[in-house]
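#lab-general

N.A. 3:47 PM
ok so I finally got the sequence cleaned up, no stray characters, all 138 residues accounted for. can someone with queue access submit it? mine expired

B.Y. 3:52 PM
send it over

N.A. 3:53 PM
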Amino acid sequence: MQQEAGSTPNAERRLRKRQRVKIALPTVATLDMRTRAGQLYKNTREAIIADLGGRDQLSRAELELIERCAGLATRLSAADAELLSGKPQSLAAGEYATLCNSLARTLTVLGLQRRQKDVTPTLRAYIDAKAHQGARAA
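B.Y. 4:20 PM
back already:
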C-alpha cells in the first residue's frame, strides 16, 4: 500500500478501523414492547396476521406491509386518544388524513377480506385422535 504525502501509518490504521464500524439500526424487534403503544402495536400486528391466515401463509413482503399497518394504526390510535381526551393534538389534520389514507391503501394491498386458516387435520392426526379417544373411553 502506497503512502500518500502527509499521511502516517497510524492515520491509515485509524481510517481503516473507522470504516469497519457497523451502525446498529434500531428495529421493532429490539424494542421493549411492554409499553401501551408496544402492546397495541403487537396486538394489531398479530390480529392482521391472523386475519390473513397466519404467519405461515404470508410472504416476507406481506409481513413488511403488516408491520407498516401496525405502526400506522398505533400512531392513529394515539392521535384519536389525544383528541378524545382533550389533549393538544400532536398531528395536524392533514397529517392525520395522510396517515389514514396510507393505512387504507396498505390494507387494501394486503386484502381486506379475512382468510380462513385450514385447520383440517391430516389423516394420521385424525386416526391418532380417534385412537386416543377410544383408549380414554375404555
